[in-house]
Write a structure and sequence with these properties.
The protein contains 14 helices and five strands. It is mainly alpha-helical. It folds into two domains: 170 residues, no CATH class; 133 residues, no CATH class. The protein has a five-stranded mixed beta sheet, sandwiched between helices. Helix 12 packs across helix 13 and helix 13 packs across helix 14. The chain is globular. The relative contact order is 0.11.
C-alpha cells in the first residue's frame, strides 16, 4: 500500500508540473521551462545518481542540450515538453551535439507519452551515441522505474518531490473519479428503465463527425445511462461539492494529453484505460469486480462524450442534456 501511495503522489506532482509547462509554452512563459530544467536536474540526480549540471548555466542557450554529466556518466540530455520524432531528429542534427563525441544523448519527454518513439529509427548525422529504446524517457517510464525500487528509495524520492513541488498530503490523493464510481457501482443499472433525454440523432452525428467506428458501439450501449449519472452529479452539486466538474475536467484532461493518438477509436479506448487506471490506484476506490469497473468507467467516458467534454462537435451540435 505504501508503494502505491508514494507512486500516486509522485505521479500527480509530475503530471501537474507537465500541465503547467504545456500551458507556459502556449503563453510563452520561459521562466517555468528554466525552473523545470533545474527541477529535473536534481530529480535525476536523486533518481539515477547522475552527476548533472545545467549546461545553460555554463554556456548560454546551447541548442539541443539542457543537462550534462561528464565523467563517469558522459551523457547529454534534452528536456522537452514537445514529444515527436521531428523534435528528436532536430536535436540530433545540431552542430552543438558534435563536440560531445563519446557522450550518450538522452531525450526526456516531460509532458507526453513517448512509448511509440522508442520503436522507430532516427537520422543521427552527428553520430552521437543514442539508442531510442534505452535513451527516451517519459513520466510513465520514470514511474515504472520508481515502482521497481525498494521502499526506502521510494520514500526518499517522495520526500524530494514533496520538498521541491509542494506539501500535498498523500491522504488527499483520493480521487473524485473513484468517489463517483463507488456510488455508480451500487446503482441498479437497467437499460429498460432509462428514459433518455438526449437527442440520439445528434449523438450519432457527433460519432460520424469524429470517425468513431469501433467506439460507436460503446457510446450507443452506455449512452442510455446518461440520466442516471446526471442525477448523481446533480446530488453532489446541490450539496455544494464540485465532483461533476472535477470528474469531467479530468476526463477532458486525459483526452487532451492523448490527443496525439491519430486514430480516433484508439484515442477513445486509451481514455477509458487511463481513467480506469487512475481509479484503481485511488486510495478511496472500493474494490469491485473488473467487469463492473469497466462498465462504470465506460458510462463516465461516454457521458463526457455526450456532454461535449471530449472530441470535436459538429456544427450546431445540441445534445439536449437534462442539466
Amino acid at each position: 500500500m505504501e508503494r502505491i501511495k508514494y507512486s500516486n503522489y509522485i505521479k500527480s506532482k509530475l503530471a501537474a508540473l507537465a500541465s503547467e509547462i504545456e500551458l507556459s509554452g502556449k503563453l510563452n512563459l520561459l521562466d517555468l521551462h528554466v525552473q523545470a530544467e533545474n527541477f529535473y536536474l536534481n530529480f535525476f540526480k536523486e533518481l539515477y545518481g547522475w552527476n548533472l549540471e545545467n549546461l545553460n548555466n555554463i554556456k548560454h542557450n546551447v541548442e539541443a542540450i539542457d543537462l550534462i554529466a561528464h565523467t563517469p556518466e558522459k551523457i547529454i540530455i534534452q528536456v522537452s515538453s514537445i514529444c515527436s520524432k521531428e523534435k528528436i531528429e532536430a536535436a540530433l542534427s545540431k552542430q552543438s551535439i558534435k563536440e560531445y563525441g563519446g557522450y550518450r544523448f538522452k531525450f526526456i519527454s516531460i509532458s507526453k507519452d513517448a512509448d511509440k518513439l522508442r520503436k522507430i529509427d532516427y537520422k543521427n548525422p552527428q553520430g552521437i551515441i543514442f539508442s531510442p529504446a534505452d535513451d527516451i524517457y517519459d513520466i510513465a517510464s520514470i514511474l515504472r522505474y520508481i515502482l521497481s525500487l525498494d521502499i526506502d528509495r521510494q520514500k526518499r524520492i517522495f520526500e524530494f518531490i514533496k520538498k521541491e513541488l509542494g506539501e500535498t498530503d498523500i491522504a488527499r490523493l483520493d480521487s473524485n473519479l473513484a468517489a463517483v464510481i463507488n456510488i455508480l457501482s451500487k446503482e441498479k443499472l437497467d437499460t429498460s428503465e432509462q428514459a433518455l433525454t438526449v437527442d440520439s440523432f445528434e449523438i450519432d452525428r457527433k460519432i460520424s463527425f469524429n470517425n468513431l467506428d469501433a467506439a460507436k458501439y460503446i457510446i450507443n450501449d452506455y449512452g442510455v445511462y446518461h440520466n442516471r449519472l446526471d442525477k448523481i452529479y446533480s446530488e453532489f452539486d446541490t450539496a455544494g461539492e464540485n465532483k461533476s466538474t472535477s470528474v469531467l475536467s479530468k476526463i477532458r484532461s486525459e483526452y487532451i494529453k492523448n490527443i496525439q493518438i491519430k486514430n480516433d477509436d484508439d484515442l477513445f479506448f486509451a481514455i477509458i484505460d487511463n481513467i480506469q487506471d487512475i481509479i484503481v490506484k485511488s486510495p478511496n476506490f472500493k474494490q469491485i469486480p473488473e467487469e463492473e469497473l469497466e462498465l462504470c468507467v465506460n458510462i463516465l467516458v461516454v457521458d463526457s462524450f455526450i456532454r461535449c467534454k471530449i472530441y470535436k462537435n459538429p456544427n450546431n451540435y445540441k445534445y439536449a442534456a437534462s442539466r
